[in-house]
Amino acid sequence: MKRFYVLIALISLTFAAGAGAMEGMDHGSTQKGEAFVHAAMVDGIHAEFQVMDLADMNITDPEGKTHHIMVSFLKNNEKITKAAGKIKLITPSGQEQISDLKDFGSGVFAANFKIDENGKYGVICLFKDEAGPHTVKFWYEHHKM
Ligand SMILES: [Cu+2]
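That is the input. Now the predicted structure with copper (II) ion docked in place:
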């Protein structure tokens, strides 16, 4: 019986710590003006993605890419500035695009893609920090003429 109470106490402690760390954080997908934002927790890292239209930012990509997927990572409320990884995009028609995350400094990483089909895109981000490899997956829905 004693062991049971200890277990309960441990579980409540874990939840309390988890809730404290998550205060003021939104997870999931939201549309903020022109930008699509997706936030997720992975291995204690808060990863925040933004899908942005290059045309909206007055950027022309020489390879004909149309969008920018930007990401930043927070661990223990501090930005991770050293990370490497790639983003794999699966288009609604099932084609794959893979792009390395470019380090833009100050904990901002990004990769460019061609997003010109309407529909649901699967986004898979594989990244590595000093603690090891991590994966975040989400859906991005594109509807533009
Ligand atoms: Cu979080």
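The longest strand covers residues 119-129.
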